[in-house]
Amino acid sequence: MCLPKKMKIIIYSLLCLVVAYFLSILIRSVTLYSDFKTESREWKGNIMQPDELLGYKPAPNSFGFQKTPVGEGTPVHFDELGFRVPLEYIFSGNFRPLILSLGCSFTFGDACLAEETFSYLIAKELNGTVHNAGVSGYGLAQMLSRAREFIPKYQPDYVVVQYSPWLAVRASKMYAPVQYFYVPTPYFAVVNDSIQIISPPFTVLVRGNSFSEKQIPDYFTFFKEICLPMMPYYDYHVTVTRMKLFFGLIPEPLEDYQQIETFAFDDLLRICEKHGAKMILLVISNELNANKITQAGRGESITIANADYALYQNLTIKTQEEYNRVYGLWKGNPPILVDRHPNPVSHQIISGEILKAIEKLNSENN
User: Fold this and answer.
1) Closest CA relative to residue 298, chosen from 261, 336, 250
2) Contact criterion met (CB below 8 Å) for 37 and 214
3) What is the pLDDT of residues 107-133, one digit of tens each?
4) Long-range own/partner contacts, residues 293-297 (CB < 8 A, 24 or more apart)
5) Which residues pair with 281 in a beta bridge?
6) Which of 134, 121, 122, 186 is nearest to 162 (CA)?
7) pTM value?
8) Which of 55, 157, 227, 342 has its CB 3.0 to 4.6 Å from that of 346, i.e. a possible disulfide?
């Protein structure tokens, strides 16, 4: 049976498109594999899981590593509730005061051990318990969603809320700030004249990996287990999401950062007051003398822990280079700056500012 000429052309064209797309996956996978093996910052192990509301969240009772470009990775452990805890953590009861920490990688403690983070340090100083709900890559939409769930559920005494300028920016985007692929996240949008949190446009694919040495056989495993399932998945869903936005089937993200901050922090404060928790706004931007507080810190209703100012004051030489030297993560020989997240020294200073804020709150209430 001979196919019509037009049908042959169609079939041939489709085959060419399939081959071309497969080659594009192959080319992208080589670059991706090279980055994973050299300079990438990535998670190792199945410590994240998809979530319809948050995009992704820590998997309860999980262990893994956070890789840095140089040196060994940082061990990570999440407890049965999905909060970050030390590697040798054993549950021994929840002691008051209970502190809930909300934020991104700065609160989570990227490149630091759990026991080196400010959340752990303040709970230790107060002989209390901490629920570190910070997650790398999170923005204000996820922070507010977690607050709405965790504050009524756990009734914390103090809620430490990270304030950093990029958190509102992230809440105006549909995807998380990750190096590879697209990770859909919740975002703020105006619907029927009110600000709402919009769920991620599709479900994230999460893959743990145990790749270590740069070997050719490992590349084929990487291609089969990571690139081949994930690249077509994200290419398809990102394209569909763009079409839905174009035709108005899903709301456009709100891009007024001040409006996002005002709405989110007002709601956070309202939830805290409703459930008897004391809210502390932690100002941290990782920049020299970054001492600006926007609408989030207006009035007397929110207690401020200004870590930016404390970090600046602690420097003998007040330059950005000195800031990076003292507060950055250095590894290798000779040492190189591999991560600008707060290091253990920085976390110590941050915890001190939070403790001062807690002391101020308690003195005002007595």
Assistant:
1) 261
2) yes
3) 999 989 999 999 999 999 999 999 999
4) 293/163, 294/258, 294/261, 295/258, 295/261, 295/262, 295/265, 296/163, 296/261, 296/262, 296/265, 297/163
5) 161, 304
6) 134
7) 0.90
8) 342
